[in-house]
Give the backbone structure.
Amino acid sequence: MASSSQNYAEGSVLELTMGSAELDSILASASSRQQLVLLDFSVSWCGPCRMLAPILVQLASENQGRVVVIKMDCEKTAANQALAASASISAYPTLKIYSRGQVVETLRGANPAALRQSITNHLAQLGPAVNHNLALSLAQALSKVKAGCSFDQFLVASKTLAAYVGNIVNNPTEPKYRKIKLSNQSFQSRLGRLPGGRECLLQIGFQERTEAMEPVLVLDHVPEQLKSVLHLLQQAISDAERTRMGGGGGGEVTVAPNNPPASSPAPAAPPVAPGPSNVHASQLARVLADSMNVAAGADGSQAAAPSSTPQRQQQQQPRKVLITPGKLARALATIMHEAGFGSTSG
């Protein structure tokens, strides 16, 4: 049984089998989310109905989050037969568009172009969707991107998405920042062609359309939550870059900005004979961080700004530090000296 608390605009076509009771719950859910409902009254033996089926699949995918697409076989169950009779269905396919729980248009026959135009018109009248958790929806879409590509590709995709969102947030009245041509090869290679890439934009509120014979993604209304989403994206990118830094493998490391330490590291000690050592990873991380004028976490896992650093300093752009062999050697010598490497007890 359908539930009015569930979001049914998930990008796939629903099959209605329980008639008006099931439809009422779906309409209630869609109304609370500012979504349209498209109901296809069809029968299994109808040729035009079968021809329209893939178009319904496309519409559901293209309007994910905005349109609930339902297919109902009018002869499959008694409940469906009763609903078709109450709706006075006399030809197949018959399509009804619902907005705020009411029928706003009825179309008959398989005419994909007219159907698309009707949906576009009614969405514009309906206004922006109410997304109860835009950040969560976007995070779910990003998880698909991450699962389907390499780490570096995911980082590029996240930065590309953040750039689009940032342009919209900073220029909310400029239409050019709210339109993406699907022929844009840079967009496709960085985000669009990746699994879940286009879904990220659909979750924000973009819709796929055809303008001047060219497919585009368009954002008609800027969601109020978009600024907070941008902040979360930027934070996620920063965390991902720190994760990559912690993985090692390169001579150049991106670190968070930090004030220079109050005092320089102790001078390098002369070589000593091998012996028992009490060197700990946290000590090594601290001295390495000091030698590079950055801060290290207590466990030595990654560089992080201390809590006492003013917020404006934490938000500065990252800087790059080159770890030279000489600097690394001095740091290792210092930590061995501090830890008493080679000293005898008593």
Notes: The mean pLDDT is 75.
